[in-house]
Amino acid sequence: MSGILIDPGKCIACRACEVACEREHRKSFITVFEFESSAVPLNCRHCEKAPCIEACPTGALFRDKDGAVMVDVKKCIGCDMCLLACPFGIPEIAGKIMVKCDLCPERRAEGKLPLCVQTCPTGALSYEEPDEFSAKRRKAYAERLALRRAGNVSGL
Amino acid sequence: MFPVFDWERCIGCLACVRVCRGGDLSYRNEDGIRRITFEPRLCDGDLLCVEACPVNAIRGAPGQEGKESSVTFELARCENCGKITDFTVKEVEWGRKMGYFNVFLCPNCKRLKSVLKIGEGLE
């Protein structure tokens, strides 16, 4: 089950992901938060145990075959119970229904990456299995550590 | 069949109001208070509200109760920034009981807390 994973150390706050998302959905479901010396993009985490699905009183939230948490627009009544339950504050009400990141289903059907991932120029966003992602990050960290030990770089 | 409301049990989440087609259920948020009103003369008796209610506070009963009823709820404040949210105190209690959170935060503070956690150690 792949998802969009965030490597905040790589984000340069260019907001290309926000623009890409808006192009695909007419509204951006990913937001970049900027801090003094770093930036973090945030979208729906498509939680493995999703409190929003549990909290929805009409059964409008479901998981699709790729593991994305999706909204059935015919069932959603826009009551916001999903937002109450969401630990990340993601769901938004647009008009009368809830909207959020859907991992670009049309693109996925064509075997393409979600548009924000495709667009991100620094690789701060990736679409992969969480295990793969952690393995890569561990490796990158170990490499940096090894370089520092070798005295090749400073300030790490 | 027409809806009968158990206002004691109701948490003021508005699921019934949002699903209502007759317009008999309405609400208003003002000065940190939410008022939900039921006007039986507008009710078409489809009982969609009974289905939508997450806490089973509405049941269908034969015949129509003639009088209008309404109830008020205090709106909850974000436990970080103190801003009044769109959730009632009773909704927050319910959410906490359901195990969705310990500290109640508004959407903005939730997002901020999340990104700070994701970016931990970067600053």
Identify the overall geometry of chain B: elongated
- Overall average pLDDT of chain A: 91
Number of helices of chain B: 4
- How big a fraction of the residues of chain A is strand? 15-25%
Helix percent of chain A reads 25-40%
State Rg of chain B.
18 Å
| Count of DSSP H/I helices of chain A | 6
Largest interface: A-B, 31 and 32 residues
Q: Strand order of the main beta sheet of chain A, please? A: 1-8
CATH topology of the largest domain in chain B: Alpha-Beta Plaits
Radius of gyration of chain A: 18 Å
CATH topology grouping of the largest domain in chain A: Alpha-Beta Plaits
- CATH-scheme architecture of the largest domain in chain B: 2-Layer Sandwich
The share of residues in extended strands of chain B comes to: 25-35%
Describe the structure.
Chain A is an alpha+beta fold and 156 residues long. In chain A, a hairpin with a 4-residue loop joins strand 2 and strand 3. Chain A starts with a strand and ends in a 7-residue tail after the last helix. Chain A has two domains: 1-43 and 107-151, Alpha-Beta Plaits, CATH 3.30.70.20; 45-100, Alpha-Beta Plaits. Chain A is built from six helices and eight strands. Chain B has 123 residues and is α+β, with helices and mostly antiparallel strands. Chain B has two domains: 2-74, Alpha-Beta Plaits (2-Layer Sandwich), CATH 3.30.70.3270; 76-118, no CATH class. Chain B is built from four helices and six strands; from the N terminus they run E-H-E-E-H-E-E-E-H-H. In chain B, the strands form two sheets. A four-stranded antiparallel β-sheet of chain B has the order 2-3-5-6. In chain B, strands 1-4 form a two-stranded antiparallel ribbon. Chain B is elongated and about 65 Å long. Chains A and B meet through strand 3, helix 2 and helix 3 of A and helix 1, helix 3 and helix 4 of B.
